[in-house]
């Protein structure tokens, strides 16, 4: 069996990665475009995220707008949106399986054969 420290470390890293995926999903900085005009006063930075786009003026003012439709997104951002949402959902499933699997490992508790068979009802001995 793997030591309890490795099991806890793996679970913690998985949860940290899942939280990171949620943060990345919410941030609007997926595509960053800088436009600098003939002088510094007309410069602006455009941030395109998977949920909204933002424009930052040289004065520090920022305006964000949520996309009106899916068609407003470029194909790479549409793919990124789908993949990030899928990764967050798979992360939830992985965390739930990690918690359920932890019930029969040495890290959380020691299970008897009877307790192990109760977790899988289709394999119960008659």
Automatic annotation (TrEMBL):
Molecular functions per Gene Ontology: structural molecule activity
Topology class, membrane: Multi-pass membrane protein
Signal peptide: none
Compartments it resides in: Cell junction, Tight junction; Cell membrane
TM annotation in the entry: 6-30, 79-102
Keyword Transmembrane: yes
InterPro entries in the cross-refs: Claudin, PMP22/EMP/MP20/Claudin
Swiss-Prot/TrEMBL GO biological process terms: neuromast development; regulation of sodium ion transport
Keywords: Cell junction, Cell membrane, Membrane, Tight junction, Transmembrane, Transmembrane helix
Pfam families recorded: PMP22_Claudin (PF00822)
GO cellular component, one term: plasma membrane
Keyword Transmembrane assigned: yes
Main location as per UniProt: other
PANTHER family hit by this protein: CLAUDIN
Family note: Belongs to the claudin family.
Official protein name in the record: Claudin b
Species of the source: Poecilia reticulata (Guppy)
């Amino acid at each position: 069996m793997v030591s309890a420290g490795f099991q806890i470390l793996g679970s913690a890293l998985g949860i940290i990665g899942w939280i990171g995926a949620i943060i990345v999903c919410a941030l609007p900085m997926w595509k960053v475009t800088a436009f600098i005009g003939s002088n510094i006063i007309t410069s602006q930075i455009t941030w395109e995220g998977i949920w909204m786009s933002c424009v930052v003026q040289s004065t520090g003012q920022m305006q964000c707008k949520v996309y009106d439709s899916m068609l407003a997104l470029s194909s790479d951002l549409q793919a990124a949106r789908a993949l990030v949402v899928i990764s967050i959902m798979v992360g939830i499933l992985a965390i739930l399986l990690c918690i359920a699997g932890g019930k029969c490992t040495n890290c959380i508790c020691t299970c008897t054969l009877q307790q192990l068979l109760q977790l899988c009802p289709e394999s119960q001995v008659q």
